[in-house]
Design brief:
Layout lengths: L1 H7 L7 E4 L7 H7 L6 E5 L16 E6 L3 H10 L3 E3 L13 H7 L22 E3 L4 E3 L8 E3 L10 E3 L9 E4 L2 E4 L11 H15 L6 E5 L5 H7 L5 E4 L18 E2 L14 E5 L3 E6 L18 H5 L11 H7 L2
Parallel strand pairs: 1-3, 2-5, 8-11, 11-12
Antiparallel strand pairs: 1-4, 2-3, 5-6, 7-10, 8-9, 9-10, 13-14, 14-15
């Protein structure tokens, strides 16, 4: 484990474990692991026999998975023991999609390579689901299945929703359904934007999708927003800090829970923050604060906690929010 973490420059992020059997795991986890989607399932670490502490340091849960393709079944049958799984990429780059890229990028990480003459057309990370069924990353096995939208969305024209730059997914909306893309991660990482653009093209081709409008994050520095501006289509900037939470905040699971690390206000400034809980209830907001850490603060909200702790308590039912945010530092 120490060697793998050193080679991948991944000192603390959790890794997944592929188990030869699901013996001893809760029934809820077994049902998810055995489903056609075969996601990574987060389970209590105490339910996994012989788990190394370095798999998910400092966490109560660890990600487990079962073999889901013939090659994985052959490997697990031969080894008859758990195998640590990690993506084939350099730190800060997307997974390698070609033999040539894998050999070039991973020569200092992998001791051996098993190559194939079939190309990888689309990157598809593993989906990650909690034992309870809560979806944390919707990707392989679930994409590109369409999700039904609640009443009020059926009359919308076809919309291409691009998402933000961090933890990106995009979405095709039409006919009361939303087709979400796979997880892409941060568009600012080397090589990710190129994969994102190709997936945009391919997904629209597969669904014969012709958008009549584009929805993009209002942040002018985002790559997704710049791409939207280059298209000859009506574009709406989505700002989650509007006085009334927009209907699009509604999750497909029927819950409302939204947060952001770098909101961009209609006044063209990075502005406070807001969270909606329950059923379309504004739960309060923070006044503008100094952006400690500059642009780096967008990816690490704790950098801004110093400014947050110095402002007055926010209005609404969040009297302890400032103090709570300050503790993050």
């Amino acid at each position: 484990m120490a060697t793998l973490r050193q080679r991948k420059h991944r000192p603390a992020k959790p890794l997944a474990v592929m188990l030869p059997t699901a013996e001893g795991l809760p029934a809820e986890a077994l049902a998810l692991l055995s489903s056609p989607a075969a996601p990574v399932v987060l389970v209590d670490k105490t339910r996994i026999d012989g788990l190394c502490d370095d798999i998910a340091p400092g966490l109560a849960e660890a990600g487990v998975m079962l073999a889901s393709n013939p090659l994985q079944h052959l490997v697990l049958q031969a080894l008859a023991r758990p195998v640590v799984m990690t993506s084939g990429n350099l730190s800060g780059r997307p997974p390698a999609l070609t033999n040539e890229r894998a050999l070039a990028d991973l020569a200092g990480i992998a001791d051996g390579f098993l190559l194939h003459n079939r190309d990888i057309v689309q990157r598809m990370d593993d989906s990650v689901v909690r034992q309870s069924g809560e979806m944390l990353r919707r990707s392989r096995g679930y994409v590109p299945d369409a999700l039904p939208l609640p009443p009020g969305f059926h009359d919308l024209p076809p919309l291409l929703c691009l998402g933000a730059d961090m933890k990106n997914t995009f979405c095709l909306v039409r006919g009361g359904e939303a087709v979400l893309s796979q997880h892409f991660g941060d568009l600012g990482d080397e090589g990710v934007e190129a994969q994102w653009r190709e997936a945009l093209r391919l997904m629209q081709e597969i669904y014969a999708f012709t958008p009549q409008g584009i929805v993009a994050d209002a942040h002018p520095g985002y790559r997704s927003a710049k791409w939207a501006a280059s298209m000859l289509l009506p574009t709406s900037g989505c700002c989650i800090t509007t006085p009334t939470p927009p209907p699009a905040w509604r999750s497909t699971a029927g819950r409302w829970r939204v947060g952001t690390s770098s909101p961009w206000c209609w006044t063209a400034s990075a502005w406070g923050g807001r969270r909606a809980v329950g059923r379309r209830m504004p739960a309060g907001e923070l006044p503008p604060v100094r952006a400690s850490g500059g642009p780096a603060g967008g990816g690490a909200p704790r950098r801004r906690s110093g400014g947050v702790s110095a402002v007055a308590q926010p209005a609404g039912p969040l009297p302890g929010l400032c103090a709570g945010l300050a503790k993050l530092s």
